[in-house]
Amino acid sequence: MNETHPTAPAGRAPTVADVLALPVLAAGQPQVVTGLAQLDRPVRWVHITELTDPASFLKGGELVLTTGMPLPEDAAGVRRYVDELTEVGAAALVIELVRRYHRPPEALVQACRARGLPLVTLARDVNFLEVTQVVHALILGNQADAMRRTQRVHEAFTALTLRGAGPEDVVRAAAEMSGRTVVLENLVHQALICEPSGSTVGEALTGWEQRSRATAPGDHTEVGGPEGWLTAPVSYQGERWGRLAMLPSAGEGPGFGPEHVTVLERTAMALTVARLIHATPWEHTAHRNALRELAEQRHHSPEDARARCAALGLPTRDSRFLAILVDLGTGAGRSEPESRLHGELRSAGVPALVGELSPGRLGVLLALRPSQPWRPVAERLSRTALSLVPEAIVSAGSEVEELADAARSFREAARVTEATPPGQPLPADRSFHELPDIDLRRLLYALREDTRVQDYTERRLGRLIDHDTRHGTDLLTTLGNYLDAAGNKTTAARRGGLSRETMYQRLRTIERLLDTDLESGERRTELHVALTALRVLRAE
Predict the structure, then answer these.
(1) Of 104, 139, 174, which closes a domain?
(2) How many CA atoms lie within 13 A of 498 on its CB side?
(3) pTM
(4) Does 216 lie in the same domain as 199?
(5) Quick one: which of 418, 458, 413, 408 has its CA closest to 432?
(6) Most exposed among 45, 153, 246, 278, judged by the fewest C-beta atoms under 10 Å?
(7) Can you tell me the mean pLDDT for 353-371?
(8) pLDDT for residue 331
(9) Which domain holds residue 210?
(10) Is residue 200 part of a domain?
(11) How many domains does the chain have?
């Protein structure tokens, strides 16, 4: 009575194979005569019978135990006996070879083989009552465990809904609770969120659209398609928004239990609520996440990155990639520019990812054909952004040939943005900025918060600034005019409205205060860098 030894994995009924492995039955030296491939049938109950028509007392899923005493003598009667067990859905027939038979009757073997009914023989005497007690305790215990797990699933998703969890949190919880990979896709079979379990993103999403289209959408939670996905629609008041897919585990076969169905249905409900309370479209969230992973190189492998982007509809083969940043400023709303850029790219027929990389900054990753020039696309995007936010700064990185190198293009665009002060005039031929636009002043602007630049500026010009402050002079302006004139004293004097003699006198004073030689090209360069940095710092 204490030999329960549960062998069935949590969350499903024990199978015929599980029951045969129990010590109480293993003691009878069971031998599988037919139906070896059907030993994964679930056992819902155990039924002991010595009747010639036991099927009338069965409901399906029973493990039928018999001594063989009631078996008909004739082959036709045996076939009828097996037919009735099969039609009612018995899990298996177990016959004891102790009393009437010492080997299974050939007619019984042939009938069971023909109907695909597992036939198991016991060579030694077994207490059938003890078998029923042990197996029933196992079944009822599993059912109680399943009820407790189902309750925990309901409680977990209720908590997620009450705290306003977003779609990523909901799908992640589903993957953790089910131990299976879970994917949320939209109506055109783009995988928006993928939480892998036991596999990589690349393995889960490679060839996603084609595989997804092979699994027809249904109105209910069901298993279907060539890969045996468990799917559930995500909808609200008859309007379908997408579909959830739970992928079979490679290690456990394609089977799904009731708990998997419960998890997926509660996931669909929680996603419906999340969609109603979060205004951001799922596609925008998916683009943001993919862009951040690329820009910050947070993907696990290049294969994962390609699979995730391809599942979002971005061509990852035979394409060139370019990153564009749109800096909207801290006060600008992001939702309208993000949507407009999405729409602009769709109307232009240019595959791209668009999303927020950080507060006030949108990222765009273009996927271009090898012969397609990128500048017209960048110009179109830039003009759209500037029409919405005139003070926006649009910066472009350089083209890269591999998706894995997109992070470099994003870094270059970020350097351009950092080196572009507010109000920076646009180039004459375009409305966006790029790396060749960065001159000395913009480079120093990007480095303005670096204490080494600040220290350098103070060491080179500090004594001159202090002298101007104490004596009310304007030698710093004179030095600026002189350096801007590339050392031409006549031009510098004219710019400062000074006579040549006054200019000479001021330059000698500057040389004495700074302990330097203004005739030296190297010294003039050092001072020019320091003065440019000071102008940048003071312009803030």
Answers:
(1) 139
(2) 22
(3) 0.68
(4) yes
(5) 413
(6) 278
(7) 92
(8) 57
(9) 164-278
(10) yes
(11) 4
